[in-house]
Amino acid sequence: MNRAGRLTVLALVSSAAASGPARGQQIDYQSFQSLFGEPVSKWVTGIPQRVGEVAANITIITADEIRQSGSRSIPQIVSRVPGLDIFQDSLTSFDVGVRGYQTAFQPRLLVLIDGRQVFIDDYSRTIWDNLPVNIDDIRQIEVVKGAASALSGPNAAGGVINIVTYSPLYDDNNVASASVGNLHQVIGDATATVRGKWGGAKISAGGLSASAFNTPREAGDVDPIAPRHSYLAARSVLQITPDVQATADANYSASRAMTADPTDFGTTGNQYTATYSVGFGVNWQTPIGLITNSTYYNHTVVQLFETTSGGNGTSGGLPYTFHTDLLVSRLQDQFKIGADHTARITLEYRFKTFSNDGVQLVDQDPAISQSGIAIGGAWIWRISDRWSWTNAARLDHTQLHQTGTIFPGAFFNPAAYDQTVNAFSANSDLIFNATEKDTFRAGYGRGIQLPSLLNLGWDITQNFGTNGPADYEANPKLKPTIVEDYSVDYARKLEFLNSHLKLSVYYELNRDITVAAIGTNAFVLVDGVPTPVVLTENVGNSAGWGGEIQLKGSAPSGFRWDASYSYARVADQGIVKSTVDYQGSAPQHHVRVIVGYTRDSWEFDVAAHAVSGTNMLRSLDGGSTQSTFPVRGYTSVSGRIGYRITPNMTAALSGTNLSQSVTRQSPFPAIRRLLLASLTAKF
């Protein structure tokens, strides 16, 4: 599409977003993708945009690419994005690092499903094996690298992953799949959709059952439990009038798996998770803009076992049970000012609660609540047919309170929990369309990583390892971690190669990084015995820099390719190196080569990764002393062969870690080769 045509389309889209019917809020992705000839996103501006015109470093993984990956795991699917690194510590447990900042229980990457947060505020993390989504019901996965808190809210400090499912208003997605594989894998998923003049509704359900990896592990690691997962999710959109839509969502998900534990114990734990969520929303087109409200409530219960067991996949020892609640209500108005300006004003309320149950040496029942109000705004200025400038700002005001009972001798008294924090985030991106083939983007982001609820309100007094009793206390006076990043991107369309070339460079500074537990010189009396205090603390800063280069394309003959290289360098300051060690955890080099071929009813795809070594911290004996654990660089190969039996039925064979039977990716237990046979039917 030439520039004149593109500007005409954008003008029509912008006009529809500002003055058209409310159904513009639930956009028809397929129509816009066909119109633009490439995937579209409304993540930043609220209106459909080509990937190359979005004011962020964004990659969209399409439904075709999800299918061609052969994976039923979202972390494995997003590993094809340059700048993301994953490590796997059990069959279903993963963590995703962004541009070198890799850790278990990743706190810097905000994860959403259709704009609703599935990131959990207990440890500040995403439990990937517990997501209530059918892989076959995902239209696209939007991956944004760089601070984006002003656009998405707290904890989008390093990036955002938004999983966009098919809309029941526009898409007749009726699909079912069944898979079996080695390690007794049995996986089943299904989605059913109904549509009418009234709107649309869909329901998805599925589950997984398998045996645990049986690979070498360290002395402090648990015997891994056999993974399980089940979910039920429903979503509906009602077209009440041409100008008013109502939406409703409800889902339940439960899982269990072995997972890496990033606290100072640094071992592994068996984890049981259950999440319930309900939500509703209204989209109303008015003379003063498109007014939307989205409200949802998440309740999550996590039970984590820290210690080793006698075998048979069960875990003994002292469990912790975390209860986390999140209520979010967002009111937004998006409107046009003249022909060249689009603005958005947002008011948001958040309420969180956290409590932990566990066997303790003293009688206590700690629990906290945190409420917050945020006001934000965004302004998109189309300066000319070549230049556009997007700015966003957000101010979060949060209040913390102790709502449970801590023991009288605790290091922090109840009054210390009455804390107020104000945090400011911002984004500014300038895009220059130099020619029909060349696009430049320069961006700045200031992101906010709020302390996790566990780090603000955890208090537990127990014996751990061989070091005797200790009083592990959270710190209600923690500061947010501030992330500032500067980035430049260049994209060029290479018509002679049927490809797109993308280059990115970045610099990132992180201030007031938090450590979950660090020893102090303080003591408290526990049953009359002086007991050392271990606190959560802000310990220092860290800087990262690097870049990515990617060549991606396809040919009329059926071949497709995606080759990339990413470089990430991290320099920790002060005691960040010895307590967190982002510097050692970052794989500096990551090469990806993805090749596919489609011919008639057949699809063939192979993906190869070469990742340089790391030196992450972890405990090797189940105690509280951490050591550097070197992990050599490794290669990994995955593949898929698919055959379309009928226009609506496909059989496939896929596998991961095909180049070796066992691979050590991290200091935690090695992973196994996995094979899967699948049958997918659409109705």
List keywords for this structure.
disordered N terminus; 683 residues; 8% helix; 5-stranded mixed β-sheet; globular; 22-stranded antiparallel barrel; mainly beta; 8 helices; Maltoporin, Chain A
CATH fold node name: Maltoporin, Chain A
Low-confidence residue ranges: 1-24, 308-316
Radius of gyration: 25 Å
- Please write the CATH class name: Mainly Beta
Strand segment count: 37
The biggest sheet amounts to:
22 strands, antiparallel, barrel
- 3D shape: globular
Supply the helix-strand structural class: mainly beta
What order do the helices and strands come in, and which of them pair?
Blueprint: H1 3-19, H2 29-36, E1 40-41, E2 49-50, E3 57-62, H3 63-69, H4 74-78, E4 84-88, E5 94-98, E6 109-113, E7 116-117, E8 138-145, H5 149-152, E9 159-165, E10 175-181, E11 185-196, E12 199-209, E13 228-241, E14 244-260, E15 268-286, E16 289-305, E17 319-337, E18 341-358, E19 367-381, E20 387-402, E21 419-433, E22 438-449, H6 453-457, E23 459-463, E24 469-473, E25 481-494, E26 499-526, E27 529-554, E28 559-572, H7 576-579, H8 582-585, E29 589-599, E30 602-611, E31 614-619, E32 626-631, E33 634-646, E34 649-656, E35 662-663, E36 671-672, E37 674-682
Parallel strand pairs: 6-9, 24-27
Antiparallel strand pairs: 1-2, 3-8, 4-5, 6-7, 8-9, 10-11, 10-37, 11-12, 12-13, 13-14, 14-15, 15-16, 16-17, 17-18, 18-19, 19-20, 20-21, 21-22, 22-25, 23-24, 25-26, 26-27, 27-28, 28-29, 29-30, 30-33, 31-32, 33-34, 34-37, 35-36
